[in-house]
Amino acid sequence: MMNGALTLRAMFEYSQGLFPNKDIVSRTSHGVFRYHYAEFGQRTRQLADVLLSLGVKPGDRVGTFAWNDYRHLEAYFAVPMVGAVLHTVNIRLSAEHIAYIINHAEDKVLLVDSTLVPVIESLRERLPSVKAYVILDDESREASAGHLAPAYDYEELLKEASGALPALPDLNENQAMGLCYTSATTGNPKGVVYSHRGIYLHSMAMGLANTLGLSENDTAMPIVPMFHANAWGLPFAAVWFGANIVLPGPSPSPADLVELMIAERVTLAAGVPTIWMGVLKELVAQPRSTDLRMVLCGGSAAPLSLIRTYEERFGIPFAHAYGMTETSPLVVFSRLKRSQQSLPAEERYRIQASQGYAVPGIEVRLVDDQGDVPQDGQHMGELLLRGPWVADSYYRDDRSSDAFKDGWLHTGDVATIDAEGFIRLVDRTKDLIKSGGEWISSVDLENALMAHPAIFEAAVVGVPHPRWDERPLAFAVRHEGDAGDVTKEQLMDFLRPHFAKWWLPDDIIFVKEVPKTSVGKFLKRALREEYQEYLRNGTPDRPEL
Fold first, then answer.
1. pTM (predicted TM-score)
2. Active site amino acids
3. What is the per-residue pLDDT across 352-364, written as a single tens digit (0 to 9) for each?
4. Mind listing the domains of the chain with CATH numbers?
């Protein structure tokens, strides 16, 4: 067999040859920008030329500090094609962590959206590796770069660059092409390096009929940020397969997302559960039809009630998926098997609410302290993964030995696997609640609370107890208006038929909002800290926080 290199350049050239007239639509701070793949390709070649002129060499890290827009998409391909490593910096991290990951990666060039310049400007004295800042904006560099130096205007640099693909170094499919950092439970973020080969194979997996079935027929909208696990790999796969692409730009509201979906006839969109809760709220307030053939949800477990409402009320198929920054990320996808499609609705939704079964090419194990755990849907264990797009270490980090052992990634997620191979996340190891020697799943309690029509969001944490070690405490956000007029006692009554008495939370505290991480997951650490402060200063009436 021929030994063709599996690289981003091959994906780019294939796409350019076949799909020059497909659309890329980008919501920007100046309005909606629209162009074709042919123009995208020319600008990507120009950016490659610019990077070489700035002294970027193979192996150098080029950072991006940007929203989901067309310039960021150009960098997604231009940086790896010159042999450099695309480092997407999470714009929502703390200043300390942003400085840490830029320095740890040793970014040589930093592409910065003009709206985000103040963040980087405040850190400029602490970024010794950065030799050039490139400002992404329609305005001039002088108007948007602040005190960053040396700073260049992206559009001016592209005007000066050649429109032809410059002489590029040969690429080895196993060399690094991307770098993302994942938040650690404690300490600094951990870097994950992606190879050309891994992203190529991961992109191919996204086109399988057993997963997303992404194709040239689609209009794809990655709502998940492009700085988070490469927007789940959707930009790479969408460009390769020739799908129309819609990029939602800076700080999109649920209303912005719905308007884009309808105006651009989006068929597939990807985001975390909190995104889909917000979009659903918008659709309920103002019902409209869409062209969505799939809502892709990951990042954390989606409540069964959310899945049911999308499918029954709006006719939008809701697909659950699972992955991590360490896995590129797609490794598990929930799709009903043929034998399950005729099951009663309740049973189908229960299956769809699981994370699904392994994507072709991925191997899974479930282990506890005694070894492998039976796959009977009952026994719990830590989920282990391996495959050709799963990392085998963290970038220059001694914590690699904690997560990567004997060729397997130890995810830190506790799960069950049933006889059909469906994986159901029970909890993160750090979020499981051990009460009286028995485990309680915070995820199951959260999903049950969010199944109540009056509850918009809910999070459950374990808090210390003098007798039982830990007990569950629930935080709930009511829906606005009369529909959200519910009491703690009514919620407890709603939970009782579904759980053993000792599983029920000791209390339910109503809050205005559940704090979230930089990528929209519930930030339970903040709730625990808030609870401890409440213990010291609260009153027996437990007022709303």
1. 0.84
2. 182, 326, 434, 439
3. 999 999 999 999 9
4. 23-164+171-194 (3.40.50.12780), 362-428 (2.30.38.10), 433-537 (3.30.300.30)
